[in-house]
Amino acid sequence: QVQLVESGGGFVQARGSLRLSCAASGAIVRINSMGWYRQAPGNQRELVARINSGGTTTYAYSLKGRFTISTDNAKNTVYLKMSSLKPEDTAVYYCTADGKYYSGSWPVDFNSWGQGTQVTVSS
């Protein structure tokens, strides 16, 4: 399978910035898209941003302008730069990726999630 490991979460004051990273590892053939979701206590998991292999990005409407997603394709890594953070951005942030990986000799589809990284924004 393909493993995703997130890093960069933590505690920040309102109006501060953080950058999250997520590295994919395994017998990857190709990655079609990577993205970030978040889940606050009592809420459903929601899309933050996604980026596909062509560089096309999708953002949650309310976050566009404050959050920026990018990738380093050579490192199979996706980043999320978060600026002007607000207390309501407090959540566990999850990385996701989909594409193909080698299962034995054959490429098969994968859709993987990371374990999540906590972001806490204080007022």
Account of the protein in words:
It is elongated, with a radius of gyration of 15 Å. The chain has 123 residues and is mainly beta. The chain is 0% helix and 63% strand. The mean pLDDT is 96. It has no helices and eleven strands. The strands form two sheets. Strands 2, 4, 5, 6, 9, 10 and 11 form a seven-stranded mixed sheet that branches. Strands 1-3-8-7 form a four-stranded antiparallel sheet, with no helix packed on it. The N and C termini lie far apart (40 Å).
Which key features would you list for this structure?
single chain, about 120 residues, mainly beta, seven-stranded mixed β-sheet
Average of pLDDT: 96
Instruction: Note the gap between the termini.
Output: 40 Å
Count the beta strands: 11
H/I helix tally: 0
Q: What is the radius of gyration computed over CA atoms, rounded to a whole number of angstroms?
A: 15 Å
The amount of helix comes to under 10%
Q: What is the ordering of alpha helices and beta strands?
A: EEEEEEEEEEE
Query: Low-confidence stretches at least 5 residues in length (pLDDT < 50)?
Result: none
The percent range for strand residues is over 45%
Largest sheet: 7 strands, mixed
SSE topology sketch:
Elements lengths: L2 E5 L2 E4 L4 E8 L2 E12 L6 E7 L4 E3 L7 E6 L4 E6 L8 E13 L2 E8 L3 E6 L1
Quick synopsis:
Helices cover 0% and strands 63% of the residues. The protein has 123 residues and is mostly beta strands.
